[in-house]
Amino acid sequence: MITLYGFGAGFGLPEISPFVTKTEVQLKMAGLTYVKEKARPTSSPKGQLPYIQDDAEAIADSTFIRAHVEAKYGFDFDAPLNLQQRAQAWAFERMIEHHLYWALVGARWTNPENFAKGPAHFFDSAPAHMRERLREDAQFRVAENYLISGLGRHAPDEDVDLAIRSLLALSVQLGDRPYLMGGTPCGADATAFAVVAGILTPFFESPLRERAQQFSNLIAYVDRMMDQYYPDFAWTRLYEAA
User: Fold this and answer.
1) End residue of a domain, out of 77, 108, 124
2) Residue 84: in which H helix or E strand, if any?
3) Pair (102, 14) in one structural domain
4) Residue range(s) defining the domain that contains residue 6
5) Sequence-distant (≥ 6) Cβ neighbours of residue 82 within 8 angstroms
6) According to the model, what pLDDT value does residue 239 have?
7) What gap in Å lies between CA 36 and CA 9, rounded to an integer?
8) What distance, in Å, lies between the first and last C-alpha atoms of the chain?
9) 6 - beta bridge partners?
């Protein structure tokens, strides 16, 4: 039995972390039975979530979890794709995880209103005398990583401009197809869905979310993936209103 460790539902999403969402969707794609438990990043072998426990093995990082599933269970997430398409799917994943994801982080953590209603509550269970200091320290560390990512070095409107270019690339790649690479979902769809849903959730307002709503095919894509992989989750559908 596989145990998936993540943060849990929140922010209007079935899972707070896009990387945990990616892994959970891929477990569903592979048809594997799993249970999900809440955990803190400090419990992970790499100090980050997600990680899985599969019998005696603990595997951390969503990309290495995918590799483990493919090697142990013989499931090829990119089975419908030829070699060139596999390369393209990998390139889109890198763009999403190393560029677009950081725009999401900036919208959640560096916007004071969004931080107060969202990530600040990660520390609600901390002792009262430590709570505010922990919040400040965490926000500082995330802002520092945002700066290191490159996006945080730009003015707020400039970082959104760059993120929108990545969303445009996704929108063009998707076109009028149901999934990024064609008629069948592949591994990259789990990544794209997770991050774009994280941007579009109505829980947070931001210039990034506002401008992301111009991509009606991405909105419909997220709604479709939500219906397919989280049919019981009360997602706020956006396509009809777009």
Assistant:
1) 77
2) helix 83-95
3) no
4) 1-77
5) none
6) 57
7) 11
8) 41
9) 38
